[in-house]
Amino acid sequence: MSENLEKTTSNGAGDAMLQNVGVKKEPDPAVQPHRILVLGSGFGGLYTAVYLDRYLKGLPDVRITVIDKHNFFLFTPMLHAAATGGLEPRYIAHSIRKIFRKTRIHAHIGEVLSIDLEKKTVSTQHRTMAYDDLVISLGSRTNFMNLEDRLEGVFTLKSLKDAAVINNHVIRMFEKAYWEDDPEIRKSYLTFVVVGGGPTGVELAGELHEYATRELLRDFGRRIDKSEIRVILVEATSRILPMLPPNLSLEALERLRSIGIDVLLETRLEGYQNQKVQLVGGDEIPSTTLVWAAGVKTNPLVAALDLEKDGIGRIKVNGTLESTKKPHVWVVGDNAHSMNPHSGMPYPPTAQTAVRQAKVCAHNIVARLRKRPEKLFSHEHVGGFVSIGDNYALLSAKQLTLTGMVGWFLWNLVYIHKLPIIRYRLLSTFSLFLKVFFERATTEIDLTPDPVENPSPEYQRALQEDY
Ligand SMILES: Cc1cc2nc3c(=O)[nH]c(=O)nc-3n(C[C@H](O)[C@H](O)[C@H](O)COP(=O)(O)OP(=O)(O)OC[C@H]3O[C@@H](n4cnc5c(N)ncnc54)[C@H](O)[C@@H]3O)c2cc1C
Questions:
Q1: What is the mean pLDDT of each run of 10 residues along the chain (467 residues)?
Q2: Which atom of ligand 1 is nearest to the CA of 46?
Q3: 226 and 164, same structural domain?
Q4: Where is the FAD/NAD(P)-binding domain (predicted)?
């Protein structure tokens, strides 16, 4: 069943260290009879691997390796809370080595640099690995809608780093405004613009507003007045949260406006230059903060693969979630163009879809190994939550809609329950509920390294690497 490895490199000193401390040494992948490579440890990849481990009981000669450039699984639905001091970032970013410790799954922390579908290999900076089954779940990237060249210094909210950077930046803008006497410059520091009226934009605008007008204002109130702070949400279409029923969309809009957020509907962004948000029609908003939350596109590595794809680069899969062009290449999550047989539309790129696809994908890989029937993926959206600032969330499920404090409690309970590591579930529960009575964090964590005199080449290289 196995193919030989193209090339392997390993750090001999590292291997010796592992033996010394009694940690099980990684077996040589070349001798494994069946190798499953899972690319990405997000919602699609992590859950596929975990289900594979569960379904493969009794089949010992199968090796599962999950490759991710980060050593953690990121729980994105709570990222906006980490960006606004409401949650410690590590509570929502869980080490995959820890999650996989008691399983047969190997974590390979490295960047996928290339995928060779003919040779059936995947390369990272560490090594090239052969596979028998490949699961692609590398997620999506921000889609700037061809405005890249006109957006200077814009923030996004996709990663843990983004959340930390936004949090620091907002605090820094308050620090700058504190000492600034020119009213126009102060205004620009204290105006926060979010683009995109989908769940990410709405949730972030809500949290940012609470953070700025309550938490930070307490710290900076000696020289900054609440009336100086502005949070603006810009949406190109005529409504926010288009996936919700119209009455809930409207309720969300009213909630945003009632807490003091300016929502500009049917307003398109033309650019962001010289710290001015430029709107189509000529209006400009001076602001030192623009967060782009207006869409996603497929990971470029995936978009470049020679497979059947849709207009935005997602890989077309059949009902079993296998590529329509290449057997043994499975795709889950944001990378999959998977048709909903009921609506005739592709499933939306959500965590909910990714987790459900993961289960079916794992089942089908194992079913094929065991020569048993495979399943077709079909899933009915069970509804979802959108939180808007402190103590308020909207829940839209099949028969049920809930808003306000009750929705917010449920939002917390449901999402926290989905965090993989129990310790962080408890810590998050405490943090989020304590937030009702106590303050959020307003500590700036400077991520830029201090300058070093005559840095060594190794140090310079380390500085340039993503953390
Ligand atoms: C701020 C935010 C809030 C969201 N809120 C919700 C919500 O409330 N409900 C909901 O259903 N969905 C939500 N989503 C969408 C949801 O996060 C995605 O649909 C889901 O994560 C898709 O899962 P995935 O496995 O396809 O990709 P991801 O979860 O993004 O995982 C992709 C993984 O691939 C890794 N990776 C990428 N490129 C490489 C490479 N070259 N080499 C190695 N590793 C790589 C990444 O590090 C990542 O771990 C939200 C998204 C964001 C950004």
A1: 32 31 46 88 97 93 96 94 90 93 96 97 97 98 94 96 95 97 97 97 96 96 97 97 90 95 97 97 97 93 96 95 98 97 91 95 97 94 81 80 79 79 78 75 77 69 61
A2: 25
A3: yes
A4: 35-358
Environment class of residue 356 by beta-carbon count within 10 Å: exposed (0-12), middle (13-18) or buried (19+)?
buried
Instruction: Classify strands 93-95 and 34-39 as parallel, antiparallel or unpaired.
Output: unpaired
**How many Å apart are CA 442 and CA 433, to the nearest integer?**
17
Reading the block at residue 190, the tokens are: 């204290």
Domain that holds residue 158: 148-294
Q: Using the atom order of ligand 1, give the atom closest to the CA of residue 334.
A: 26
Ligand 1, residues at Cβ distance < 6 Å: 40-45, 67-70, 76-77, 79, 111-112, 137-139, 157-158, 199-200, 299, 301, 333-335, 349-352, 354, 384
Q: Give the ipTM.
A: 0.99
Pick left, alpha or beta for residue 152 (phi over 0 → left; psi -120 to 50 → alpha; otherwise beta): beta
d(CA 64, CA 211): 42
CA-nearest residue, atom 6 of ligand 1: 77
**Pocket test residue of 207, 334, 361 for ligand 1, highest count of atoms within 8 A of CB:** 334
Same domain, 222 and 301: no
Strand partners, 279: 269
| Ligand 1 geometric centre to CA of 311 (Å) | 20
C-alpha 165 – ligand 1 centre gap (Å): 18
Residue 335 Cα to ligand 1 middle (Å): 10
136 and 168 co-located in one domain: no
Under the phi-then-psi rule, with left for phi > 0, alpha for psi from -120 to 50, and beta for the rest, what region is 181? alpha
Q: Would 244 be classed as within a structural domain?
A: yes
